[in-house]
Amino acid sequence: MPKTLIEPFRIKSVEPIRMTTRADRERLLQESKLNVFKLRAEDVLIDWLTDSGTGAMSSRQWGAIMEGDESYAGARSFYRLEKVIQDITGMPYFVPTHQGRAAEKVLFAATCKAGDLVPNNCHFDTTRGNLESMGVEAVDCVVAEGLQPATLAPFKGNIDLEKVEAVLQKEGARIPFGMLTVTNNTGGGQPVSMANIRAYAALLKKYGKPFIMDVCRFAENAMFIKMRESGYENTPIRAIVQEMFSYADGATMSAKKDGMVNIGGFIVLRSDAWLDAVKNGLIMMEGFPTYGGMAGRDLEALAVGLEEGMEEDYLRYRLRTAEYLGERLEAAGVGFVKPTGGHAVYIDARTVLPDMPVAHYPAWALCNALYLEGGIRGVEIGSVMFGKRLADGTETYHSMELVRLAFPRRMYTQSHFDYAAEVIAELKDKAASIRGVRITKQPQFLRHFTCECDWV
Q1: Which of 18, 80, 83, 253 could serve as a FRET partner for 42 with CA atoms 20 to 30 Å apart?
Q2: What are φ and ψ of residue 46, in 5° steps?
Q3: pLDDT by residue (tens digit) across 99-114?
Q4: For the packed helices 218-228 and 237-246, what is the interaxial angle rounded to 10 degrees?
Q5: Measured between alpha carbons, how far is 30 from 82 in angstroms, rounded to an integer?
Q6: Measured between alpha carbons, how far is 57 from 306 in angstroms, rounded to an integer?
Q7: Is the dihedral of CA 97, 99, 101, 104 positive or negative?
Q8: Which of 132, 141, 91, 126 is nearest to 112 (CA)?
């Protein structure tokens, strides 16, 4: 077979892209207060802001939508999805939500209180925001290489077992459960090994703590295990997924990722110990327990999407797509988190802007430059997203300055990736002209979504 890995699908419908000029983009970015979240989508040529809910659904999913049962309580579509999720996760209790952050909010409200502490490999933005807004401390315990973009290691998303055990020993009374995010979004979409999942589960059991996984990209993580972990080379993806879930006591999911849908999420639990509290919170925040903020048609689309997201040909193509862009960036001398993750490529902004002070937010600056140069929208994962402005006006800064280019599923073709690689290479050559920013307005939590900036 040829080395070129083709898209394992054909395109039946297209959406036009509105082409813009550099002058257009300069004006539009200024109007958006130098925050690409505030841009209109129609003013973006390639939108890699997020892979969450932005992909293309299949013909099977669109067909399933027509079968949606919109009954308020006890809809047929709920029970169809429940059966699929129970088979995949092995957990009997399924609670739908409209997206992942809602699942987090409902679960945390039922299980956490102010003063608690939750360890994780890395909490992503909404997970951390939901915990910290409740007064819960979110502690990251990823392995050391997970914070080193240029270091090559097969499972840089692993949790540091020694570090997390020290937290359990010291702070056990404050810990309602331990978490693990697969794949590790904050650290470059890096996978977690089965051995690490198994060992972490045993460690939490030793200290009497439930194990909750954040499984937005469970299928991508399973594919990495198949490709990189000894003993799983010939194991079907579904079996790998089922083993991953077998070690956990519960999970939250934004189904807008590996669920292959535009909206949806859920909580699954192995025990009913928290179930009443979770369902009561769900009714207050989301809806009745058999729809949980989702329409019946969305429940049907998700039932199909969860199966399609585990197809090996699709997963091989998806991981290869990120790898391909990484190869193009390597040739251009642009640093990124290595090896490439499953859903995105994370540019190390420090390799493009080595002399820009962190106080000028180099990853945010590079995000703006990507839009100005080529109409590409990515997202900063650096000191705007994970830093804080303290009461005395000083700032805390993140350990890495990354720009995530997250790829919607089944959306863009190779020519889009070639175009992006050319734009990024040109930016590397023009790095001296890239301007930093200062934040002029920000909220207390999740400031990157709505903050306003000006040029330094």
Answers
A1: 253
A2: -125, 115
A3: 999 999 999 999 999 9
A4: 110
A5: 46
A6: 11
A7: positive
A8: 132
**Ordered strands of the 93-97 beta sheet:** 93-97, 265-269, 250-254, 211-214, 178-181
User: Could you give the CA distance from residue 127 to residue 130 in angstroms, rounded to a whole number?
Assistant: 5
Dist. CA 40–CA 347, nearest whole Å: 24
Structural contact between residues 137 and 127, judged by C-beta atoms closer than 8 angstroms: no
Domains and CATH numbers, the chain: 22-51+312-455 (3.90.1150.10), 59-308 (3.40.640.10)
Name the helix (H) or strand (E) containing 253.
Answer: strand 250-254
Spatial separation of the C-alpha atoms in residues 452 and 350, rounded to whole Å = 23
The pair of three-digit structure tokens given for residue 185, joined into one six-digit string: 């979004």
Per-residue pLDDT reduced to its tens digit, 390-412:
888 889 999 899 999 999 999 99
Residue 1 pLDDT: 47
Q: Among positive and negative, which fits the CA dihedral 340, 13, 254, 266?
A: negative
CA–CA separation, 270 vs 261, rounded Å? 25
